[in-house]
Specification:
Helix content: 55-70%
Largest sheet: 5 strands, parallel
Structural class: alpha/beta
């Protein structure tokens, strides 16, 4: 709702660093600190609701077989509320199930020994926790002893032993007295641990420690060892020779990682063995991905073993990780873990989050109408630009609040000064803390006022700052200030590193006028023109945050103008955004300019730019190849059209010649050929040879008439197949006519009398040349036999040379 004009707000209720960690005690459920950076406002998101249901189901009364273990993974990007949900889980377990043992790891560390000693929190951190653990060990002894005593089937005291076993299970008998009376051997515990925790390599040490824990002389020594210290000499004498977390291991000690996880596994197993709930909370698992390969793999293997123990022996393990961290686990582990994926807040939850923080404000609690000074447009933009990421929502709210501050009017300030001058002056003197002090320490109106004026007291004459309205324009300005803090020069430096990395070729001259390299207003600018191939360009465009539709349209218009100016050259654009651009806006820009923008991120940006340029270069090369193929295809099409036109002209001439066949026989000689020329007279050839040449040429003319008639009757361009047949028939006809002429010339020279050996050799050469020429031609395309001819045209020309040789070589 829109704020009323009379509402005045003094203190910034939003945290300076909205990051939740499982480190400080205040983050684990102690009384809230006003304005603490971890946040004191809680809203029930789908993630919190689903996680709470799983936790409640775990703590529900177990069925007969016992409590079912489970592992839950909170998977998502940064700032989505995973750690917040994990902290809520801690609070729920502590408030409703205080009897449950709980271990907390705020984040993994390569020096697991130091983490185990200094940062891991568990039951041994308090006197009550130690007492509960000792009772647990005693119950475990009773459980194991009962199993051992009840298994003595062949003992003559079987009935008595069964009663003792029943009393131990029902906790009616003191296990210490039973152990003393039966001369209990600690090896029984070791056998139980070994049989159940086969994956834990250090179970003998833990069996010995558990056996000594209940003996007063060793109790403190065992607790010190369980706390990560080096074992005392009496423990070394009994086989416990190494600390759980080696003190000198450093960051490169995989053995230390295994020992710490073994300790967690054994301690958790004890609770599951006697049916007691136990919980492990682990945050930021993805940080393991940055470790050296050996340590990373050792940690992941040990963590997977721990997950198996918790799920198999009635434990609850909840951990936070990124999608990359989840992928680092083996595929089989995904089936054993319940995955919860948080998403951005809805518009409703975004408003609720803002309202909850405003409600926690020091002096406006109970008086603020919902979202207080935030206008509707501001709330809409807040959700749209942050995409509902809680951390981003709070950061923008704080920045927008600071931008909305203005000096309080003098009369009101003087009244406030009269009412509490001491507190105000004390706060004003602490100008070094600025707004941070008010945000974190706001314990009263004086502190809050001092924090608000700490940043601007000199400029406003010491007046207290107030907030009356937070507008949409202020939210836009806040987003730009938060996300545009990297200098233009820094971005250019990273771009230069990318160009150096790939040795990219910068265009010798800009392909467009200088005025087109900048958009109107100068917000978008081409910082480099690259020319990876001739007549191909990549424009590297720098811009600031793309928040509104107008920003996207301005960039699209600028890029389209560059593309038009570069034509006919090929063009691609790489847009670098030094600021914020939402996923939806990235999709819109990708559709408009042809490539998705790159958002500047510290670290590795040069490599990212280099890889993006490689993709655009590949695209330009593909476009060039496609263009060349299209040009080649067009050229071939034009050549084919010209060839078809020439062949069609020849077809027309052939058709015109065929028309002569319809003229009465007395008009033209009977030996006329389609070309209009009379058939050559060859009286020197024998009649059988003349007949064979005439039949072969007639078959070829028949093929020509058939193809030509089909094209003319359909009145369409001849197909490539028709042209192939026609070309083959025409060429074979010319070869046959030349063959006939050569044979006729030979026959004239061979008369009178019988041919000599030299003349026969010459005839053999003429026939062989024709035969070879016909063999390489696709005469099979000439078609089948006609009714008036028993042979196919192909067969007729293939045997023609053989028949001519046979006829002429046999002449006497």
């Amino acid at each position: 709702m829109a704020p009323d004009s009379g509402d005045i707000w003094h203190e910034n209720p939003f945290p300076l660093i909205p990051v939740v960690r499982l480190g400080p005690a205040s983050d684990l459920g102690d009384p809230s600190v006003r304005g603490a950076d971890s946040g004191n406002a809680h809203i029930t998101t789908p993630l919190v609701r689903d996680l709470r249901a799983l936790v409640d189901d775990y703590f529900a009364p177990p069925a007969a077989p016992g409590r079912r273990g489970r592992a839950i993974a909170l998977v998502g990007g940064f700032g989505l509320g995973k750690s917040h949900a994990l902290r809520r889980t801690y609070q729920t377990v502590r408030e409703r199930h205080s009897e449950a043992a709980m271990w907390i790891v705020d984040e993994p560390a390569q020096d697991m020994g130091r983490l185990y000693r200094d940062r891991l929190r568990g039951p041994g951190d308090s006197v009550q926790g130690r007492q509960a653990f000792e009772e647990l060990v005693r119950d475990y002894y009773a459980y194991v002893t009962a199993g051992w005593v009840g298994a003595q089937e062949d003992d003559p005291r079987r009935d008595t032993l069964q009663e003792i076993a029943t009393g131990l299970r029902e906790r009616a008998l003191d296990p210490d007295k039973v152990v003393a009376a039966l001369r209990y051997d600690p090896e029984v515990i070791h056998a139980d641990l070994r049989g159940t925790l086969g994956e834990v390599t250090e179970h003998r040490r833990f069996a010995t420690a558990l056996a000594l824990l209940l003996e007063p002389p060793f109790k403190r020594m065992v607790w010190n060892w369980l706390g990560g210290e080096e074992p005392a000499e009496p423990l070394r004498e009994r086989g416990i020779t190494e600390a759980i977390g080696p003190s000198g291991g450093g960051a490169a000690n995989p053995a230390g990682i295994d020992r710490v996880f073994d300790a967690l596994a054994v301690q958790g197993f004890l609770h599951g063995r006697v049916g007691t709930a136990y919980v492990l909370l682990l945050d930021s698992l993805e940080k393991v991905l940055d470790w050296p390969e050996e340590n990373r793999r050792t940690f992941m293997d040990a963590f997977e073993r721990l997950v198996n123990i918790y799920t198999s022996h009635g434990g609850l393990l909840v951990f936070c990780t990124s999608p990359e961290g989840l992928r680092a686990l083996r595929a089989g582990m995904h089936e054993r873990v319940v995955q919860l994926w948080p998403t951005g807040l809805s518009d409703e939850h975004t408003r609720e989050l803002v309202a909850k923080y405003l409600a926690a404000s020091r002096e406006n609690a109970g008086t603020a109408p919902d979202t207080g000074p935030f206008e509707e447009e501001a709330l809409r933009l807040l959700h749209e630009l942050t995409e509902g990421v809680p951390r981003e929502v709070l950061k923008v709210c704080r920045q927008a609040w600071q931008l909305s501050e203005e000096p309080e009017e003098a009369p009101e300030f003087e009244e406030a000064a009269d009412a509490g001058a001491g507190g105000s002056s004390g706060s004003l003197s602490d100008s070094g803390s600025g707004s941070v002090g008010g945000s974190e320490n706001g314990s009263g109106s004086g502190s809050g006022s001092g924090a608000a004026t700490g940043d601007h007291g000199g400029a406003d004459g010491g007046r207290r700052l107030v907030v009356r309205r937070v507008t949409g324009a202020t939210v836009l300005k806040a987003v730009r200030e938060l996300h545009e803090r990297v200098s233009y020069r820094k971005v250019l430096d990273d771009v230069h590193d990318a160009l150096d990395l790939g040795q990219w070729r910068i265009a010798s001259r800009d392909p467009v006028p200088a005025r087109l390299s900048r958009s109107p207003g100068g917000r978008d600018e081409v910082v480099h023109w690259l020319s990876p191939a001739p007549n191909a360009y990549i424009a590297v465009v720098h811009t600031r945050s793309v928040l509104l539709a107008d920003d996207a349209e301005r960039i699209a218009a600028h890029v389209h103008g560059l593309r038009s100016a570069v034509r006919p050259g090929r063009f691609e654009a790489l847009l670098l955004v030094n600021g914020l651009v939402s996923q939806a806006m990235q999709d819109r820009l990708g559709r408009s300019i042809g490539s998705r923008p790159l958002v500047y991120r510290q670290g590795g940006f040069a490599q990212t730019v280099h890889e993006a340029l490689l993709q655009l270069e590949r695209r330009l090369v593909e476009e060039q190849r496609e263009g060349d193929l299209a040009e080649l295809g067009e050229r071939m099409r034009r050549d084919l059209e010209q060839q078809q036109a020439a062949q069609l002209e020849e077809l027309r001439r052939a058709v015109a010649a065929l028309a002569l066949e319809n003229v009465p026989r007395g008009t033209v000689p009977a030996t006329a050929v389609p070309g209009g020329e009379p058939e050559p007279e060859t009286p020197e050839l024998p009649v059988p040879v003349r007949r064979r040449f005439r039949d072969a040429l007639a078959m070829l003319e028949t093929v020509t008439r058939r193809v030509a008639g089909r094209a003319v009757n359909r009145r369409v361009a001849a197909t490539p197949a028709d042209l192939s047949v026609l070309g083959c028939a025409t060429l074979v006809r010319e070869l046959t006519e030349d063959f006939r002429g050569s044979v006729s010339a030979w026959a004239r020279g061979a008369l009178p009398g019988a041919p000599t050996e030299h003349q026969l050799s010459e005839l053999r050469r003429i026939c062989r040349e024709y035969e070879c020429a016909v063999e390489v031609l696709p005469v099979h395309l000439l078609g089948g036999a006609e009714p008036q001819h028993p042979l196919t045209p192909a067969r007729a020309v293939e045997i023609l040379a053989e028949e001519v040789w046979g006829s002429l070589s046999a002449v006497p």
